[in-house]
Hints:
Elements: H1 3-10, E1 13-18, H2 24-37, E2 41-45, H3 51-65, E3 71-74, H4 77-83, E4 87-90, H5 97-104, E5 109-114, H6 117-125, E6 130-133, H7 150-159, E7 164-167, H8 175-180, E8 186-188, H9 190-193, H10 198-209
Parallel strand pairs: 1-2, 1-8, 2-3, 3-4, 4-5, 5-6, 6-7, 7-8
Amino acid sequence: MPWKKKSLNDAKLYLILDRDVGTYEKLFEILKQSVQAGVDIVQLRDKKGTARDILAFSKQALRFLRGRVPYIINDRVDLALIVAADGVHLGQEDIPITTARSRLGAKAILGTSCQTLAQVRQAQRVGADYIGFGSVFKTLTKPDRAPMDLRLLQRVVKEASIPVFAIGGIKVGNVRQLQVAGIGRVAVCRDICLAENVSQRTQRFKNILIKSKS
């Protein structure tokens, strides 16, 4: 199994570096501290940035990472291809996974956001490598989205044959609810990015998630 896919299968803590919560300089510092503290996979989410800025940040990030953890770019298949990112994350309204796969190749990690079991099944059929499922809790990233019933998330995790990361409003203060429910993979943004001590917050998440069997 290629190292990218193995890293994904082993991953429990997925960090989203959202440009809405900090400058590129701040996000790079968060990247360094969180990876050194145990984050398993990193995504840049930048809905407003220019192609030049996203490429510049991604090159810097990849130089630092040197293959230690996968680096994912949100939405931009074209930029992921140019910078040789490890993969892309696609929403339901973005280009099809099959199109992204044809451009990025079999080794690329392709993730997608899902809110229903039907979307998860379809994503698996067309070759997604992982699912981001939510919003689990109330989140500032998607303020108009209501929190979901955790029983649905449990069903998705049980049925899916690819990794499922719970996403949306996940904090150290509520992640144990997910762990108790048997959900052992999470994607986190603000609770790490805005933490006073990024390393300590990352380690707290990992200590909780390591106990999960999912």
